[in-house]
Design brief:
This protein is an alpha+beta fold. It has a domain at about 190-310. Helices cover about 55% and strands about 15% of the residues. The strands form three sheets. Strands 2-1-4-5-6-7 form a six-stranded antiparallel sheet. A four-stranded mixed sheet has the order 11-12-3-13, with helices on both faces. Helix 12 runs parallel beside helix 13 (about 435-450). The two termini are about 20 Å apart.
Length: about 475
Amino acid sequence: MNEVKIAFKNYKLLKEGEINLNQGSIFFVQGPNNVGKTSMLTLLQAIMEVKDETVNPVTFGEKEGFSTGSIPGADGLIYQFRYDFNIDGKSKFTFIAPDGKVVKTITEMRAIFNYTHFTLEEFFDWSKSEPGRKKQREIFMNLLSEKERKDIIEIDEKIHPTKGTLIDSRKEVNRDVDFLKKKIDAVIITPDQQKLIANKELLNTTFENVKKEKEELEAILSKSVNSLERITELRTQIDNSNERYKNSCTQYDKDIDDLERQLLEKKQSYDNYKKDTENIIKTDKDKLSELEKLVDEKYLNDIQLKLNGDGTEDNVGLIKRLENGQKKKDELLQIEVLVKQKKEDEDKYNLKFKEAGEYDTKIETLRESKKSIIKNSQNIPLGWSLTDDYLTINGVPFMETDLSKSQATKAIAELMIRINKAPIMLMGDAEALGYEILDELDTYAKEQDKIMIFAEHVRQAEELQLVCYDNIEHKPTVKKEMF
């Protein structure tokens, strides 16, 4: 067991006296208000931090004071010390190592205890605010080795909820996923449009057939216009041929009598001429008949009816059908573009969704790595861990809303012991602690060879007193492991 003996004179409300922390693990600084409880705890804190932030530590009416004694350091060795202070604000610390050497620098003096001060109540209250949780995190991180801290900092740079590079990348990918999802959902292909896509081949075939039929009919109409002129020309030609034929026949008849001797020749010539002419006339008549068919009014009307229709749903007309077909083809083209874009967006969405999932896996893997680093650290108490912005104990957020004060007290005590290797621990106020918790803390302090010091307000006490927990009568409780 460590033995601590500290004398003091003229420190704040402590006029003169000694602090003896021997043969015990838990001590209470008891007394009513304004008797020096805070002064005693502040003095102990000043010695272990090797600094005193009190504006004027000297007892009112005095000019100077001091504290001296022996106190164990973090290495377990006993150091002699002296702390001098005066009304002018000047102070001086002196420490002598067990081998008699004087510790020269403040840095070396502070290294004796390597003390980080906070109380149970303070640590618990820090969980109520963001700056406080940041303090908890800093204290926790300092428990880790340099490599463990470096590894966790590197992980946090990637997975911190507001500053992590992986988190930012995942947010960007998720924004793309959400945008593409909304874009895809906005594209609605109606049943009629789906039917149109399904009948694409039939539509194109029908359209081409109607187009071909229209072109053929329009060619006939175009040809019929030219045929009217040709009909007139042929009629004139036939009339002229008939006229020549008649005149020639008459002439030949007259010449027969006069040209008997040339009869046979003339007759043969006549017969040939007649045959050729009749063939020409017959050919021209056949052409005339064919052309007259082309310009036949009923026939042309039928063509116009096929082209233009009669205004009923049963006979729309080739031109209107082609217009409707072209509209359908245009609509189909737009739908195909829309479907193609939607397919591209769906492919992009699937890629982005997969990428987002990969980020989730990477982030979760890093979080598990972070938990593993903390879990396997030799300096972190069992059950403690660290999320992005707060501490947890056994998986429960270390916050007032999630953790009872008794659970927090026991957990913080173990954390304090890991943080502060020196035997003396200033625990804060004991008002809210019952005997069951104190029994467990006492057992744990004895196991760890620690001295826990609490402040306790006792109205019945007439003066400041230091009481060992072992000397307080209370109902014993069953001893059980704290952690």
